[in-house]
Design a protein that fits this description.
Elements: E1 4-5, E2 16-22, E3 28-34, H1 39-45, E4 63-68, E5 71-73, H2 84-88, E6 91-93, E7 97-99, E8 103-106, E9 118-130, E10 134-145, E11 152-157, E12 164-167, E13 179-187, H3 193-200, E14 207-214, E15 226-231, H4 235-248, E16 254-260, H5 269-279, E17 283-289, E18 301-302, E19 321-327, H6 328-341, E20 348-353
Parallel strand pairs: 2-8, 15-16, 15-19, 16-17, 17-18, 19-20
Antiparallel strand pairs: 1-3, 2-3, 4-6, 4-8, 5-7, 9-10, 9-14, 10-13, 11-12, 11-14
Helix pairs in contact: 4-5
């Protein structure tokens, strides 16, 4: 890790720019990047624990206030997840910011060690159809890889150029040891090249390549209670985060609001039952169905996931960490709802799924 403490006597190398990050406590940390490099990638490559998730300008996790200096945005900020107020205040997306000069930044760096990104071969050991057009896919890794709760990786069939990103649903080992096997929940997308191929037949025994881990999702105070909102297979990182928190904290309690279209789409009963058995009364799961036929035997909640987010949940929104995973529109709607309910913006952690299309 090449992060350096601020030192005016240190000269920046030719062709490089010095990045200085000012903490809220008055501390300063600095590092160098090559001029014209992308800010986020350059920071991560040096082991800087920079907040990020999607790395393609969609999720907004890497938003950074530019105090001094100049960058070139690689996307139209008006089309980014940044609000007009944030843009006027000087915020940029680090993943889409090409460094032009020395910079002074206001961003909250993490305090955990960055795990190295690795590419390893793997073999499909489980290909199981679940309700709702979902596959439970498990891969045995030829070399064990460490990951943090809520992270994701890219996977591809050996010999294929079609790569897709999925979140691990596994809980990292309590002692931090690497995992020899990992699992994913893959939703079938009509016309999607990868998911249609995966669903066509049992892929057990097929060789895959796995690259990761990526993203920062599960970061917040360890013992803080959590509200998790998942749409469809957005449940995968939630299973990882909640399971990890439950084993590392003796007091944190969690509520999971899990939204699918209808009762026949409730694909995660086994995974949720296993988590509930470990958590006891520290976990409450609330399924909600958006398109359940009227007159069915379903007696639970109906509507979009935001319909479940009311004071009736009986939680202290002002002192809750929120974790949201699902499609872009759903996540943004939940973020707005939670802020109105009093959840602090910096305690909302979001993973916004963006369809990859058919290529």
């Amino acid at each position: 890790m090449q992060v350096l403490e601020k030192n005016p006597a240190v000269e920046t190398r030719a062709g490089h720019c010095r990045i200085t990050v000012r903490g809220s406590d008055g501390s300063e940390t600095s590092f160098e990047v090559k001029k014209n490099d992308m800010l986020l990638k350059a920071a991560i490559d040096q082991g800087v624990d920079y907040p990020h998730n999607c790395r393609v300008g969609v999720c907004g996790t890497c938003k950074t206030r530019l105090v001094d200096g100049r960058v070139s945005p690689m996307v139209d900020l008006a089309l980014s997840p940044l609000s007009n107020e944030q843009i006027k205040a000087g915020f940029v997306l680090a993943c889409q910011a090409k460094v032009r000069t020395d910079l002074v930044l206001d961003v909250k760096l993490g305090h955990g060690a960055q795990l190295p990104v690795r590419t390893v071969s793997a073999l499909v050991t489980r290909w199981q159809r679940l309700p709702g057009d979902v596959i439970d896919l498990r891969l045995k890794l030829d070399d064990a890889v460490a990951f943090n709760a809520g992270q994701y990786c890219t996977i591809a069939e050996s010999g294929s150029f079609t790569r897709r990103s999925y979140s691990y649903y596994d809980v990292p080992a309590a002692d931090g040891s690497p995992a020899g096997e990992v699992g994913f929940l893959v939703k079938r997308l009509p016309g999607g090249r990868f998911s249609e191929w995966l669903f066509a037949e049992d892929r057990s025994g097929i060789k895959f390549w796995v690259e990761g881990p990526f993203g920062v999702m599960g970061v917040d105070d360890l013992d803080r209670d959590g509200l998790c909102v998942a749409g469809g297979t957005g449940l995968a990182p939630i299973l990882s985060i909640v399971g990890d928190r439950l084993q590392r904290s003796k007091t944190a309690r969690f509520t999971i609001v899990f939204g699918v279209r209808s009762e026949k789409d409730l694909f995660a009963d086994t995974h949720l039952a296993e988590l509930q058995a470990k958590a006891g009364d520290r976990l409450r799961v609330i399924p909600i169905l958006s398109h359940e036929p009227e007159g069915s035997a379903w007696t639970g909640l109906r509507g979009l996931v935001t319909a479940a987010l009311t004071p009736a949940l009986g939680i202290d929104f002002r002192d809750t960490a929120a974790f949201i995973c699902g499609n872009l529109g759903m996540v943004e709607a939940v973020e707005r709802c939670l802020i109105e309910l009093g959840v602090q913006a910096d305690r909302i952690h979001a993973d916004k799924f963006v369809p990859s299309g058919t290529p």
